[in-house]
Design brief:
Blueprint lengths: L4 H20 L2 H5 L9 E5 L7 H8 L4 E6 L2 H14 L4 E5 L11 E7 L8 H11 E10 L5 H9 L4 E6 L4 E5 L2
Parallel strand pairs: 1-2, 1-4, 2-3, 4-5
Antiparallel strand pairs: 5-7, 6-7
């Protein structure tokens, strides 16, 4: 499916649409709600064409690290192009459908934006994100395909996360246990 020309065309159209969106609504404004600071380690889970990569890279600075994960090889290629074009030395890509390969309790913030509604194993993904988040880490969540109550119940029903805040565009969840 990932090498399907129709799927790749759809992905490229989506990427172009995101570029227009990002021009009018810069991603850095959304990332501010996640409280990303210099030195943070951030996972952009389901990074797509890399809309948040440059802004996240700037926020974590030279002492931080951004991991961009996606299931789609074209997404990873697009992120690598952004990294190369902008000379971002603190960004690493991960091609995966769930397992991040990252150490336990290693991420300060995980971004899960406009991805959850499309996951084949959402609870498996939540378990993986719980595993990699530091005890005081933050899951920053947004999905315009879901209503507020569905977002809160789907993320908290596993008992892994609790709602810790609601911003203008994102929901913040902290680890339980």
């Amino acid at each position: 499916m990932m090498d399907n020309p129709a799927f790749n065309f759809h992905f490229k159209v989506m990427a172009f649409t995101f570029k227009l969106r990002d021009f009018f609504s810069p991603r850095k404004n959304i990332l501010k709600e996640a409280g990303i600071k210099p030195g943070f380690r951030v996972l952009d889970y389901g990074c797509g064409p890399g809309s948040y990569i440059t802004a996240a890279s700037e926020l974590v600075g030279g002492s931080g690290k951004v991991y961009a994960l996606d299931i789609h090889p074209l997404a990873i290629r697009m992120v690598r192009d952004i990294v190369s074009k902008n000379k971002l030395t603190n960004v690493e890509t991960i091609l995966s459908d769930c397992n991040t390969g990252l150490p336990d309790n290693s991420m300060d913030v995980v971004l899960l934006y406009d991805t959850f509604h499309d996951l084949s194993d959402p609870n498996g993904v939540l378990q993986e994100l719980h595993r990699v988040l530091k005890p005081d880490g933050l899951l920053s969540f947004s999905d315009h395909h879901m209503k507020e109550q569905e977002i809160i119940s789907r993320v908290t029903e596993t008992g892994l996360f609790k709602l810790s805040g609601k911003g203008e565009r994102t929901y913040s969840f902290s680890k339980e246990k």
